[in-house]
Design a protein that fits this description.
Elements lengths: L7 H30 L4 H9 L2 H17 L3 H32 L9 H19 L2
């Protein structure tokens, strides 16, 4: 889909998503830097650790808002289906990896990788969904 084919809702989604991702990158970099160099303690350490989650939660809300605002039922359905594929992907990966951790001493993977993996699964499904409905 070319930019000229974007719906008004998709344009608003993009206008919200990319600035939020820039904020996420800056907050993540800042939090890591301060945690490594400043060695904060107590509530400050917890606040810095949680700070990158705030823009991540905003991205989830932005995606939900897009679904509400999108008036094209087909585009909305494609987005929901890609979200379901992303969910299926992350459920499969975390379930298998959980068994590997628990029973085969596989290394622990931090939970903050779950959302990016969901997004990867969602993104990987989109070309297949577009192909399916052509």
């Amino acid at each position: 889909m070319t930019k000229a084919q974007w719906s008004p809702a998709l344009k608003r989604y993009q206008a919200r998503f990319w600035p939020t991702m820039i904020v996420y990158a800056l907050v993540l970099w800042g939090a890591i830097h301060l945690l490594q160099t400043g060695h904060p303690a107590g509530l400050t350490k917890y606040a810095l650790a949680v700070a990158p989650a705030v823009p991540t939660l905003a991205v989830i809300a932005i995606l939900g808002r897009y679904l509400v605002e999108e008036t094209d039922e087909f585009r909305r359905m494609l987005t929901v289906q890609s979200m379901l594929w992303g969910l299926a992907f992350i459920l499969a990966v975390t379930t298998v990896w959980g068994f590997l951790e628990g029973m085969a001493d596989a290394p622990h993977i931090p939970m903050f990788y779950v959302f990016p993996a969901f997004c990867a699964g969602m993104g990987l499904s989109q070309p297949f969904l577009a192909w399916r409905y052509r």
